[in-house]
Amino acid sequence: MDKYQKCAFNERDYCFSCYIDDAKNYCTEIDFEKGLIVIKQDNDITKKGYFLACKYYFEYLNNQEWKASEYDKDNRKYKIGFDFDNPISQIRLVEMNNLVEPLTINVSAILADKNAYYAKKRDEELQSLIEKASIKHSVGKDLINIYFQPCQEDYVKTEIEVFIADGVYEYGYGYPIASQILVGGKNRQLIAKFSIENGVLFKSMTGLAPGVYAYIVKQYSHAEKLLFETEPQFVQI
């Protein structure tokens, strides 16, 4: 970048933005001295229709040819489409009177983590199934009742595993002795495993001694496909 280019092209005037709906700018770095623009893809990899825009005319390299940006009258900007699946590698700034050599700038596209995106989607789908299952419990003198609903239409059965557990407590309010509140625990020993076929939506366990227990709920569809498995839920008798 020579002194003439520094005068003609400054970052304050040539302010680039990459956007989908103008709500967020995906340009994370613009440095004309380094000749670099960094554009970061949204974490939602399904989003499409990005635009790279500037209020001044610029060109982009496509198949070894420089192509012109298009003027958007509504937004009063020059813009080009930007595709993270096939990102452009360079743009150049052009002084319209040809008094200064064009300034070529490299474009670095940072792709979102696809594995993280799909893992997040799986977690969201799992939580949705667990919410639909509406798992609840109630406790009696020597019993625990667990209630649930089918999480989807092709539901076939529920499995419940029950454990003796060690409880973790927090102290609540109380005088002269503060109350203990069960907030979690650790499974110690599996003591029962139940399979409940479709049509029955609860399980009652009786004859239990005082103490802390944990249960895990699993639901299945046809062909023994596991739909979800909950984290241990801790209860005290």
**What separation lies between the terminal Cα atoms?**
75 Å
Q: What's the total number of strands?
A: 18
Q: What is the spatial order of strands in the main beta sheet?
A: 2-3-10-9-5-6
**Which structural class is indicated by helix and strand composition?**
mainly beta
Report the major sheet: 6 strands, mixed
Shape assignment: elongated
The H-and-E topology, N to C, reads as HEEEEEEEEEEHEEEEEEEE
Overall mean pLDDT? 92
β-strand percent reads: over 45%
As a whole number of angstroms, the C-alpha radius of gyration is 30 Å
Residues in helices, as a percent range: 10-25%
In DSSP terms, counting alpha (H) and pi (I) runs of 4 or more, how many helices?
Answer: 2
Unreliable runs? none
Descriptive tags:
single chain; 5-stranded antiparallel beta sheet; 2 helices; mainly beta; 237 residues; 6-stranded mixed beta sheet; Immunoglobulin-like
Any overview of this molecule?
It is a single chain. This protein is mainly β and 237 residues long. It has 2 domains: 3-112, no CATH class; 132-236, Immunoglobulins (Immunoglobulin-like, Sandwich). The protein is 11% helix and 48% strand. It contains 2 helices and 18 strands. It has helices spanning 3-8, 114-133; strands at residues 17-19, 27-31, 36-40, 50-54, 58-62, 65-68, 70-72, 77-82, 90-93, 103-110, 136-139, 144-147, 155-171, 180-197, 202-205, 212-221, 225-229, 233-236. The chain has a 6-stranded mixed sheet, with no helix packed on it. Strands 13, 14, 16, 17 and 18 form a 5-stranded antiparallel sheet that branches. Strands 1-4-8-7 form a 4-stranded antiparallel sheet, with no helix packed on it. A hairpin with a 4-residue loop joins strand 2 and strand 3. The radius of gyration is 30 Å and the shape is elongated. The protein starts with a helix and ends with a strand. The model has no long low-confidence stretch (mean pLDDT 92).
